[in-house]
Amino acid sequence: MTVVGLHHVQVACPAGSEDALRGFYGGLLGLPERRSRRSSLRAAASGSGSGRRSLHLGVEPGFVPARKAHPALLVDDVDALAAAVEAAGLPVRWDDQVPGVRRFHTDDPVGNRIEPQQG
User: Where, if anywhere, are coiled coils annotated (predicted)?
Assistant: First the structure.
Protein backbone atom coordinates (compact mmCIF):
# COMPACT_ATOMS: atom_id res chain seq x y z
CA MET A 1 0.00 0.00 0.00
CA THR A 2 1.28 3.44 -0.90
CA VAL A 3 -0.23 6.90 -0.83
CA VAL A 4 -0.69 7.98 -4.45
CA GLY A 5 -1.75 11.60 -4.03
CA LEU A 6 -3.40 14.25 -1.94
CA HIS A 7 -7.14 14.74 -2.44
CA HIS A 8 -7.83 17.77 -0.24
CA VAL A 9 -6.75 19.81 2.77
CA GLN A 10 -9.20 21.30 5.26
CA VAL A 11 -8.59 24.65 6.89
CA ALA A 12 -10.69 25.64 9.91
CA CYS A 13 -12.55 28.93 10.20
CA PRO A 14 -14.95 30.60 12.63
CA ALA A 15 -18.66 30.89 11.91
CA GLY A 16 -19.49 34.10 10.06
CA SER A 17 -16.17 34.35 8.21
CA GLU A 18 -17.37 32.78 4.96
CA ASP A 19 -17.69 36.03 2.97
CA ALA A 20 -14.22 37.24 3.97
CA LEU A 21 -12.77 33.84 3.06
CA ARG A 22 -14.58 33.88 -0.30
CA GLY A 23 -12.89 37.22 -1.00
CA PHE A 24 -9.47 35.86 -0.06
CA TYR A 25 -9.47 32.36 -1.54
CA GLY A 26 -11.78 33.09 -4.47
CA GLY A 27 -11.09 36.75 -5.21
CA LEU A 28 -7.44 37.24 -4.30
CA LEU A 29 -6.08 33.72 -4.88
CA GLY A 30 -8.46 32.94 -7.76
CA LEU A 31 -9.60 29.53 -6.53
CA PRO A 32 -13.09 28.77 -7.86
CA GLU A 33 -15.65 27.89 -5.21
CA ARG A 34 -17.38 24.54 -5.19
CA ARG A 35 -20.13 23.95 -2.66
CA SER A 36 -19.91 20.99 -0.30
CA ARG A 37 -22.25 19.54 2.29
CA ARG A 38 -19.38 18.79 4.66
CA SER A 39 -17.49 22.09 4.45
CA SER A 40 -18.72 25.67 4.59
CA LEU A 41 -16.70 26.44 1.47
CA ARG A 42 -14.62 24.39 -0.89
CA ALA A 43 -12.12 26.03 -3.21
CA ALA A 44 -10.90 23.92 -6.10
CA ALA A 45 -7.47 24.02 -7.66
CA SER A 46 -6.52 22.03 -10.74
CA GLY A 47 -2.97 20.81 -11.03
CA SER A 48 -0.74 18.55 -13.05
CA GLY A 49 -0.02 15.03 -11.91
CA SER A 50 -2.80 13.47 -9.89
CA GLY A 51 -5.57 15.79 -11.13
CA ARG A 52 -7.95 18.00 -9.20
CA ARG A 53 -7.18 18.88 -5.60
CA SER A 54 -9.24 21.01 -3.26
CA LEU A 55 -9.00 23.18 -0.21
CA HIS A 56 -11.96 22.82 2.16
CA LEU A 57 -12.88 25.52 4.65
CA GLY A 58 -14.87 24.23 7.60
CA VAL A 59 -16.47 26.06 10.50
CA GLU A 60 -14.96 24.92 13.78
CA PRO A 61 -16.45 25.77 17.18
CA GLY A 62 -13.76 27.31 19.39
CA PHE A 63 -11.71 28.18 16.28
CA VAL A 64 -8.03 29.02 16.75
CA PRO A 65 -6.02 29.99 13.62
CA ALA A 66 -3.34 27.61 12.38
CA ARG A 67 -0.09 29.54 12.76
CA LYS A 68 2.36 26.75 11.85
CA ALA A 69 0.31 24.15 9.96
CA HIS A 70 -0.59 25.42 6.48
CA PRO A 71 -1.45 24.51 2.91
CA ALA A 72 1.28 25.24 0.36
CA LEU A 73 -0.28 26.44 -2.89
CA LEU A 74 1.62 26.22 -6.17
CA VAL A 75 1.12 29.38 -8.23
CA ASP A 76 2.30 30.33 -11.70
CA ASP A 77 3.57 33.81 -10.68
CA VAL A 78 4.49 34.07 -7.00
CA ASP A 79 5.79 37.64 -7.38
CA ALA A 80 2.51 38.87 -8.90
CA LEU A 81 0.55 37.16 -6.14
CA ALA A 82 2.80 38.70 -3.47
CA ALA A 83 2.16 42.14 -4.96
CA ALA A 84 -1.61 41.50 -4.95
CA VAL A 85 -1.50 40.25 -1.35
CA GLU A 86 0.43 43.34 -0.25
CA ALA A 87 -1.97 45.62 -2.19
CA ALA A 88 -4.83 43.97 -0.26
CA GLY A 89 -3.11 45.01 2.98
CA LEU A 90 -2.06 41.51 3.99
CA PRO A 91 1.42 40.50 5.15
CA VAL A 92 3.99 38.95 2.81
CA ARG A 93 6.79 37.13 4.64
CA TRP A 94 9.34 35.83 2.12
CA ASP A 95 11.05 32.56 3.02
CA ASP A 96 14.35 31.56 1.41
CA GLN A 97 15.17 28.62 3.69
CA VAL A 98 14.78 26.06 0.88
CA PRO A 99 17.31 26.68 -1.91
CA GLY A 100 15.67 27.04 -5.32
CA VAL A 101 12.14 27.47 -3.93
CA ARG A 102 10.56 30.93 -4.29
CA ARG A 103 7.82 31.23 -1.66
CA PHE A 104 6.25 33.44 0.96
CA HIS A 105 3.83 33.10 3.85
CA THR A 106 0.75 35.18 4.49
CA ASP A 107 -2.39 34.89 6.58
CA ASP A 108 -5.96 34.43 5.43
CA PRO A 109 -8.58 36.83 6.88
CA VAL A 110 -9.04 34.67 9.99
CA GLY A 111 -5.32 34.24 10.71
CA ASN A 112 -4.52 30.86 9.15
CA ARG A 113 -1.05 30.63 7.63
CA ILE A 114 -0.90 30.12 3.84
CA GLU A 115 2.23 29.42 1.75
CA PRO A 116 2.10 30.33 -1.94
CA GLN A 117 5.12 29.11 -3.86
CA GLN A 118 6.25 29.20 -7.47
CA GLY A 119 4.94 26.12 -9.24
Answer: none
Given a contact cutoff of 8 angstroms between Cβ atoms, the answer to whether 68 and 22 are in contact is: no
Measured in degrees and rounded to the nearest 5, phi and psi for residue 18 equal -60, -45
Phi, psi of 68 (to 5 degrees): -110, -55
For residue 33, give the DSSP letter. B
Which among 49, 48, 56 has a CA at the least distance from the CA of 8? 56
Position 47 pLDDT exceeds 70: no
Rounded Cα distance between 38 and 57, Å, is: 9
Q: What is the pTM of this model?
A: 0.84
As a whole number of Å, the end-to-end CA separation of the chain is 28
In this structure, what CATH number is given to the domain that contains residue 86?
Answer: 3.10.180.10
Query: Is 38 a member of any domain?
Result: yes
